[in-house]
């Protein structure tokens, strides 16, 4: 028997027993009062659902297999990018950034370096001298016209190739291929009481937020995407996000 229940601002596509998502409208709240008892339990205590536990075990196995295969396939490209970054300004190839992972544990998130070696000093200067840039940074923790990014780095970011080293993070168990974007300590306050939901899963190389709107959204919607993924995660949703990532990267939708 199919049970239906109402949601506020119902999203449109990926279905689980307590909600549906089909596209960019992701911030919604399920009306649990009309949902079946099992559905209410899964939304309030998702970790206790044996189906989610099985899906997580399968997801980890798939993460390792796919990440290893992708590293083999992309190794020549990664070596070429490493050489390009190295010879562009003589700086280091990789950027290791302290991020918050599952369980609130910190890890070194790997990327091809896309910023100048004096990036911190440049950021401080622009935030001190440009009120508009400071307001943008406070709202999104990003800058659309970021003075720290090199010419090579801008190309890598636009194509998302700077994130290829995160496949190593996946093999290490720091990340999953799909999950919330890894955040820095300064962003924890933006999650507020929902930070526990972020910590409940491994951060991902891609996720709901990226395939929906990427940077073309508010931080509040980003948090809503992370909460929704934590609640609705399944192998079906996992593969759907991976598939949707391809056109998102090709179109460079919202990337900068």
User: N-to-C SSE series?
Assistant: EEEEHHEEHHHHEHHEHHH
Largest sheet: 2 strands, antiparallel
User: Low-confidence segments, ≥5 residues, pLDDT <50?
Assistant: 1-45
With strands numbered from the N-terminus, the spatial order across the biggest sheet is 1-4
Number of DSSP strands? 8
Helix-strand makeup class: mainly alpha
**Shape verdict:** globular
* Overall pLDDT level: 79
Strand content: 5-15%
Amino- and carboxy-terminal Cα gap: 46 Å
Radius of gyration (CA) equals: 19 Å
Helical fraction = 40-55%
Query: Counting H and I runs of at least 4 residues, what is the number of helices?
Result: 11
Characterization of this structure:
The chain has 256 residues and is mainly alpha-helical. 50% of the residues lie in helices and 12% in strands. It has a two-stranded antiparallel sheet. A two-stranded antiparallel ribbon has the order 2-3. Strand 2 and strand 3 (19-21) form a beta hairpin. Helix 3 crosses helix 4. The longest helix is centred in the N-terminal third of the chain and has 40 residues, at 50-89. It starts with 6 loop residues before the first strand and ends in a 6-residue tail after the last helix.
């Amino acid at each position: 028997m199919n049970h239906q229940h109402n949601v506020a601002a119902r999203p449109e596509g990926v279905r689980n027993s307590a909600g549906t998502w089909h596209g960019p409208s992701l911030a919604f709240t399920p009306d649990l009062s009309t949902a079946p008892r099992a559905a209410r339990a899964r939304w309030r205590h998702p970790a206790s659902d044996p189906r989610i536990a099985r899906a997580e075990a399968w997801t980890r196995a798939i993460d390792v297999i796919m990440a290893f295969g992708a590293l083999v396939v992309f190794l020549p490209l990664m070596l070429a990018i490493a050489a390009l970054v190295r010879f562009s300004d003589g700086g280091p190839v990789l950027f290791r950034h302290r991020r918050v992972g599952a369980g609130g544990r910190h890890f070194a998130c790997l990327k091809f370096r896309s910023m100048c070696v004096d990036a911190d000093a440049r950021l401080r200067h622009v935030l001190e001298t440009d009120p508009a840039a400071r307001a943008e940074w406070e709202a999104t923790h990003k800058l659309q016209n970021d003075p720290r990014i090199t010419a090579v780095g801008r190309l890598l970011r636009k194509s998302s190739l700077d994130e290829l080293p995160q496949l190593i993070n996946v093999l290490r168990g720091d990340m999953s291929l799909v999950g919330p974007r890894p955040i820095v300590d300064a962003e924890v306050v933006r999650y507020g009481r929902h930070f526990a939901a972020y910590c409940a899963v491994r951060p991902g190389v891609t996720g709901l937020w990226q395939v929906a709107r990427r940077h073309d959204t508010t931080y509040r919607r980003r948090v809503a995407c992370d909460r929704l993924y934590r609640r609705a995660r399944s192998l079906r949703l996992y593969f759907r996000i991976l598939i949707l990532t391809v056109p998102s990267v090709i179109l460079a939708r919202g990337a900068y």
